[in-house]
Amino acid sequence: MGSSIYGVSSPQIFFFLFFSSVSVAIAALPQNPSGKSFVSSASAQINSNSVLVALLDSHYTELAELVEKALLLQTLEEAVGKHNITIFAPPNQALERQLDPEFKRFLLQPGNLNSLQTLLMFHIIPKRVGSHQWPDHKTGPVKHTTLCSDHIHLSSESTGRKTVDSAELIRPDDVIRPDGVIHGIHQLLIPRSVIEDFNKRRNLRSITAVLPEGAPEVDPRTHRLKKPASVPVGTPPVLPIHDAMAPGPSLAPAPAPGPGGPRHHFDGESQVKDFIQTLLHYGGYNEMADILVNLTSLATEMGKLVSEGYVITVLAPNDEAMAKLTTDQLSEPGAPEQIIYYHIIPEYQTEESMYNAVRRFGKVKYDTLRLPHKVVAQEADGSVKFGHGEGSAYLFDPDIYTDGRISVQGIDGVLLPEEETETVKKPAAVKVASNKPRRGKLLEIGCWMLGGLRIRSCR
């Protein structure tokens, strides 16, 4: 993981300098058979002979780097200051080659810091347990509590093989220090809670943000089924009949039965809960989910619509876009509902269908639940752009959730309908005629005659 300088890894240099800077000049301490911690004062300062510094041994630098990334240095310093500790450390080879790359990426993601901390503290117990204190195979396994409040079991076999849960002890008493001991094990110990969290995230990523496996394959050009899907008798059609016959998704939104439909084929409430949960796990759309669930009753309304057979497409602004909304825009009664209504299209659209539509027809107007306003979409920079001018938004996270009834498309702005400004016409200027006194007819003739003689006195 880390780079090396003259055969010494960079995490090793960091640890040595760190502990040297905070340590007090203490002579090398002798072994402590009583099991009490060697602490110079109540502040629990760590010296260079500490078991934490020994983690920088060539076999365990990868584990030490994970401890640094998990921000556990202070926690381990406090633990060493209170009592001895025992560390079960897998070698570098086990972390580099034997660990699943997908699981390793999961541990190093910033949002999974708690899982990484739990995993590392699962390898440490707050007491000294040497190899001579290992339970005999006749007594059976012995349970010990780890720093993460979980339990591990130490056991021995009749062949002399010692184990820690499922890991074999390969280097017993590898590093012995006054405040603890390090045993080498052949693989990483993974608590059940971390495995469950990893499986939950992996399953959610595989079943959401993509079409389900059972969804029909649709030709994006004709918007018709590529192959007839085999469905049980009596189930609703995989595509509405009118939508299947339409030349394009933007021209013919899928019709649905009215509120008084004879049957409820779809569990709209569960589908809405699923897509809101997907927004939360996807990240960056917490404000949108909060408005749907807490500030308004739109989640319930959307569930009723889907249960009645309607299909919807939600243009979801991300948290950065929602943060730009002013207090005035949200303070009026019903304002949040009106904003969200303008982001709900009563059609089922995916990123591919919308992009094909704008490529084919230029500007496309989609109906919204905020009647009579429509949202305009057009192609821009190889993506789909919604709205006009400064109030426009781009398709930012396509197909966050698509299950055949509800489609969620992430955008990077909040859309607002164009204000209908009334042009005020200015009244036409009224010409006021000057009331000049009218001259008599004889006087005009006289002036005309004098003008011929170039006399201008009568003007």
TrEMBL record:
GO terms for cellular component: extracellular region. Residues 246-267 are annotated as: Disordered. It is found in: Secreted. InterPro entries: FAS1_dom_sf, FAS1_domain, FLA15/16/17/18. SUPFAM superfamilies: FAS1 domain. Belongs to the fasciclin-like AGP family. May be a cell surface adhesion protein. This is FASCICLIN-like arabinogalactan protein 17.
